[in-house]
């Protein structure tokens, strides 16, 4: 589902995860926070190396079933390598002869991370067999040394921009880079790294439009930074989009993660980030720690830093490719219409009080919002976890049901009793008679019931999309003709997801977002909190029919109408 796609990873594939902003008073504060995050990740990885991560279990629908944990073990051990026709997910677990989720194996010989600062890349060893993991003080000192070197050293080719290109373009350029020994060494260090630490520059509050809701950077602004970096003049060259985990920190306190999606779903990234932040917030920096950090900084100033800057040889081919990559990422960044919208009137507490699943309720609100704007529904993707099965990832809950359409149409009838002279999904002119509140409630209940049925089918392995995908790929691998169903216009229409949605529930005040999956569609992640619902909406400005601002207004109206509808229901 991911590795065959040739589109660039930023916006089209890699999600961005905005963590709660921090308060940094100095560069040392910023470096210490990044060091604590790396230390927390190293502690988390020790648990993974021992295969001691607790097995999660299903919380509903045959409660207690164990869930496959393979995604968690891939997060810090995988790298997406570009290919001409198909990418490859390279696993260091498999290269060491380990089986994901299997018995404990000896720890790796040592770990390093890549640090990006001012578009320059550094290799920083963070653990070794003889000395173990670097201390927080050591890491703080090394990160400060990187920041000083990046500020004073000559310009370096911003090679990270190439990872934002189309996958086939990047595959050819990567092969070209490997022809030079210096480039090959740098590429190998990146591809074998644990993760990347991106020491960014903050985006201006006016980036991609004025802030919504006051001065300063808002959540939308920070989401842009995590998803794509802000363009070639900002932080997009401070990335290596093939790496599974990129930890982003900037001096103004904005922080988060950009992650490569083929290795894992959002739930694994959320669990990792929340576990690490708990470790960070539990750390108490005493006077001795502060003194140790100062001593470490002095030592770094007096001798060579352990972090080494990666060397690149850029010939005319590479320089031309970098200029093209800058144009392409800047065009993509400018085209992204992103809006983190907080609905503050109510949250999942109210929805649960109505005896309705918050997820099903929000899915119907998205259908109603879309119908209010376009007087039709569109193929909708909602991710459904299939981790009840070994190596299970997701199947597709198709929320645009006939029941949802009937309910949305009834909710949008005008005062004259007519829904309007609009085109239906069958292309025929249709009108609807006036529905009473009781009838609209009945239609709502039917839509909720259907949404729930489809959800249960998917999480218990009875969905349709993964099975069809398997049949299509088997035909291709066996060299057989692709079955006619996959060439049918109905199949193409059903898989043109004008709404690509997912619930990303977090215990933190954080936001995960991603771009739309089709040029004329919307991306819509959502996080139901007790007293509000956080949406991250995306579209492309180049499509004249889409607008996240209008979609947010339609969502507000739809959620308000749904509360009014359910308020009339008998307790």
Key words describing this protein structure:
571 residues; Chloramphenicol Acetyltransferase; 6-stranded mixed sheet; 19 strands
Describe this protein's structure:
The structure is a single chain. The protein is α+β, with helices and mostly antiparallel strands. The protein folds into two domains: 309 residues, 2-Layer Sandwich (Chloramphenicol Acetyltransferase), CATH 3.30.559.70; 224 residues, Chloramphenicol Acetyltransferase (2-Layer Sandwich). Strands 1, 4, 5, 6, 7, 8, 9, 10 and 17 form a nine-stranded mixed β-sheet that branches. The protein has a six-stranded mixed β-sheet with strand order 11-19-18-16-12-13. Strand 5 and strand 6 form a beta hairpin. Helix 13 runs antiparallel to helix 14. It starts with 15 loop residues before the first strand and ends with a helix.
Number of strands: 19
Total helix count?
17
Tell me the strand percentage band. 15-25%
* CATH fold label of the largest domain: Chloramphenicol Acetyltransferase
CATH architecture descriptor of the largest domain: 2-Layer Sandwich
| Mean pLDDT over the residues | 90
Count structural domains: 2
Largest sheet: 9 strands, mixed
- What is the CATH homology-level superfamily of the largest domain? Choline/Carnitine o-acyltransferase, domain 2
Structural class based on helices, strands and sheet pairing: alpha+beta
Distance between the termini: 44 Å
Q: How much helix, percentage-wise, in residues?
A: 40-55%
Radius of gyration: 25 Å
